[in-house]
Amino acid sequence: MTRGAALVWLLLLLAEGGPEASVSNLQVAVDGERALASLVLRNAFDGALLARLQSGLPTAIVYRFELLRDRKRWFDRGVAENTLEVAAVHDAVTQETTVNYRLDGKLIDSRTVRERPAIERAMTRLERVPVFSLEGLPHGQRLLVRARAELGTRMVLGLVPARVATAWAESRKFRPPAPAP
Amino acid sequence: MDLRDRLLRHRKDTRLIVGGLALLLLVLAAAFYLLQRGRDLPAVLVANRLLLFVLWYANVVLILTVLFVLLRNLFKLAVERRHRVLGSKFKTKLVASYIGLSLIPVLLLFLLAAELLQGSFDRWFNAPARPVLEQGSAVAQALYRRVEEDSLRAAGRVLAEVAALDLDSPAERTALARRLRALAAEHGVDLLAVYEGTEFVQAVVDPRAGLPDLPEPGRDLLEEAARQGRALRRQAPPGGRGRLLLAAAAEPGERLELTTVVVAGELLEPALAGRAEALMQGEQSFRQLEVQKDDLRASHFLIFLMMTLLILLASSWVGLYLARRVTVPILALAEGTRRISGGELSHRVEVEADDELGVLVSSFNRMTAELEASRALLERRTEELLEARQLAAWNEAARRLAHEIKNPLTPIRLAAERVLRKHRAADPGLGAAIEEGVEVIVREVGTMQAMVDEFSRYARMPRPRPVRVDLGKLVDETLHLYRGVKPGVAVEGAVAPELGEVWLDPEQIKRALINLLDNAVEATAPPGRVELRAAAADGHLEIRVADTGPGIPQESKEKLFLPYYSTKGRGTGLGLAIVHRIVTDHQGTIRVEDNQPQGAVFTIELPLAPSP
Fold first, then answer.
1. A9 in a structural domain
2. H or E segment at B452?
3. Which of the residues A141, A145, A165, B594 has the least number of beta carbons within 10 Å of its own beta carbon?
4. Nearest CB to B291 within list A51, A92, A95
5. Cα-based distances in Å from B437 to B440, B443, B449
6. What's the per-residue H, E or C state across B76-116?
7. Region B46-74 average pLDDT
8. Is residue A16 predicted with pLDDT exceeding 50?
9. Which of B38, B280, B294 has its CB closest to that of A93?
């Protein structure tokens, strides 16, 4: 094998098949002193994830959220971080999939779904999740939320475990609510 | 630090590294376990993940450790070989032989094991296990679906009948109960229940089926049926016996709470449900293994890799161990030889060995002990000899001193006797005799005084005070004293120009040169030549005074520098003794040899740098 062919083979081995998973439509709504995040995770439900889910093993997608203060001439400053773990367990007998939502380790929601599109929807579409408290943040500051999803690990070259994660997606900038008079 | 200390330190380091890695592994495992527990995962799953994690990282850490130690050994060996450390070639050959001998079979075994593992995985996850499990699970699912469809059909028929009834009427409710019983028997279902929205209306349960009470179908089942017209659930009945399959039918309407929902259920007997579900769960377990097979394969592959590296490490260690068993005594012997040659005869080689090398070490130590004893004996003898020679020299000096003192005493005694004789004989020449006698006595006493002064100076000669001296200038000044002092004898000198300034006591060295030149000029008959040359040679300052005189007899050369030894028959006999003393005090040496073609040459060697 020539050196060039070996390089191509290695790149093909390292490259993932199909389109890359990505976080899109990240939107933040301010509800009182809470920031509610909504997003859609695309191209995450590949064959490997589905096979793991159907095997009955707990299958989790971990969403990482960061609340940042926007700075025009410098890097944005981190204000807070949060993690939402969406873990699904499939029961082969009842053909039901229980999806649990844990925000920073605390169970905030649990759903039982039965059809594959419903499972995918439950794991990849987040609607108004209260990811951050804006209490105490100055009204004048411009904030933004960025998020990414971690889809577990995969083996590189069949030996080395590597974490699979999407790129960071950013929301539009917003301001904390004005303090009550 | 001796060899034993180094070995002990090395052992301590190894223990520390292994202990540290084991501790790190434990800490990581504990952290991972706590993390997983914090996520409220099932205990079995946590244990599985923990096991996989520990296996994986234990493998990786061990492989890295083994690889590190192996490479470190080889690197050290390469460095030793590059620096030509004694024994490194032998070590390299032995280690290369051991690794070479084990490498081919180990690699073959590794490849064979990896191939076997790959084949085993392929077989495990392909025919015949996979289709059997998949088909078995599909059959069980088909059975459940068929029962669910039957129940759904029954629920649909009941719904059609119930739709015509006014469920708010108590009379019709009673009639409904009877009708439900009949319909349940007709459709062969174990449970029939009617709801308005999520409100219970009426139900019948066949007690013979094993259902002790009406099971709760669940609000979400009723809501789903009310929304979508149908819904299915598989429930574990109270008491955990069998499996209850529920089917709900409804006519979706505008308002959920007004929608009539009929639920039909059938309880599968425990034996049948148990077998069906074992098939489903078996297939799921197989899928779990299949999902994790890459991890498992990687872990097994790493274990093989680790074993391969361990064997290679063991080979290299055995090679190094055996090489050390040989090279350590050899190194110790080489070091011992170096020290012995440096005069450290008390050195002994301390290496514990019970083989032929041990015999060699013992022989070496015995030989060294004998050498030490011989040297002590030789030193004692030499000391005795030196003492004897010194005694003889002083005897000779005393004899010469007595002789020198005796010489002036004779004229003194004769002059005194002559004066006495003249006085007794009342000789008229007494006055003249007294005058002559006193002159003789005074002259001879003066000679004796000069002799005593010279001896005193020799005995009290001060220590040299070296300073930076331009030797060329010093030699010129000295030679200037001898220009034309003896017609027909040329006195010449030369100092090497690169010599520059040297460290010495100028007064003392000048006096030594004068004494040597005095003797040389006196011994050289015209036409003759006296030369004084100075140059650097082998890190020393070398001053040569050569003449073309008669030379010095061999028997006189050994005594030439002793006090009161003279071949001239006159003088104090201290001149060369003083030269010898000055040179010795300058940490130098002096020797006399024959000059070619005739004469004598005195060579003084002095250190160029000041002594510390």
1. no
2. helix B430-459
3. B594
4. A51
5. 5, 10, 18
6. HHHHHHHCCCCCHHHHHHHHHHHHHHHHHHHHHHHHHHHHH
7. 71
8. no
9. B280
Instruction: Select from A153, A156, A179, A151 the least CA-distant residue to A167.
Output: A151
Q: What domain count does chain B have?
A: 4
pLDDT tens digit string along B137-181?
999 999 999 999 999 999 998 888 887 777 777 777 778 888 888
Q: In Å, what is the CA distance from B225 to each residue of A173, B110, B229, B233, B261?
A: 43, 60, 5, 11, 7
Is there a contact between A93 and B234 if contact means CB atoms under 8 Å apart? yes
> Is the C-alpha dihedral spanning B149, B150, B152, B156 positive or negative?
positive
CB distance A159–B301 less than 8 Å? yes
Residue B78: CB partners within 8 Å, gap ≥ 6?
none
Are B218 and B150 part of one and the same domain? yes
Cα B203 to Cα B260: distance, rounded to the nearest angstrom:
13
What is the pTM (predicted TM-score) of this model?
0.55
Shortest Cα–Cα distance, A171 to chain B (Å): 28
Residue B359 lies in a domain: no
Are the CB atoms for B470 and B426 separated by under 8 Å?
no
**Residue A145 placed within a domain:** yes
Look at residue A132 and tell me if it is in a domain.
yes
Is B354 among the domain residues? no
Tokens of B197: 């929205």
- Chain B: nearest CA to A139, how far in angstroms? 35
Is residue B108 predicted with pLDDT exceeding 60? yes
Q: What is the mean pLDDT of residues B83-107?
A: 82
Collect all residues of chain B within an 8 Å Cβ-Cβ radius of residue A62: none
CA–CA separation, B313 and B67 (whole Å)? 8
- To the nearest whole number, what is the mean pLDDT of chain B? 82
The CATH number linked to B561 is: 3.30.565.10
Give A93 to chain B, closest Cα distance, Å: 6
User: Which residues, 6+ apart, have CB-to-CB distance to B40 below 8 Å?
Assistant: A107
Q: Is B287 part of the contact surface with chain A (CB cutoff 8 Å)?
A: yes
Which chain A residue shows the shortest CA-CA distance from B246? A94
Q: What six digits make up the tokens of B192?
A: 């029939």
Nearest-CA residue of chain B relative to A50?
B291
Question: No. of H helices and E strands in chain B?
Answer: 14, 12
- Cβ under 8 Å to A: B residues 119-148: 137, 141
Nearest CB neighbour to A55, from listed B291, B295, B297: B291
CB of B309 closer than 8 Å to CB of B70: yes
Asked if the ipTM is above 0.90, the reply is no
Model confidence pLDDT, tens digit, residues B5-44: 655 565 556 777 788 778 778 777 777 766 655 554 545 4
Q: Do A87 and B297 touch (CB under 8 A)?
A: no
- Residue A17 phi, psi (nearest 5): -80, 150
Interface test with A, best of B34, B288, B291, B297 (most A CBs within 10 A): B291
Does any domain span residue A108? Answer: yes
C-beta of residue B533 within 8 angstroms of C-beta of residue B544: yes
Residues of chain B contacting residue A112, judged by C-beta atoms under 8 Å apart = 220
Domain span at residue B36 reads 14-127+292-331
Cβ contact, residue pair B45, A58, below 8 Å: yes
Q: How high is the pLDDT of residue B42?
A: 47
Q: Give the minimum alpha-carbon distance from B297 to chain A in angstroms, rounded to a whole number.
A: 8
Number of domains in chain A: 1
**B612 occurs within a structural domain:** no
B512 and B401 belong to one structural domain: no
Q: Which residues of A touch B (CB under 8 A)?
A: 48, 51-52, 54-58, 85, 87, 92-95, 102, 105, 107, 112, 155, 158-159, 161
Q: Does B486 touch chain A (CB under 8 A)?
A: no
**Residues of A whose CB is below 8 A from B284:** 54-56, 92
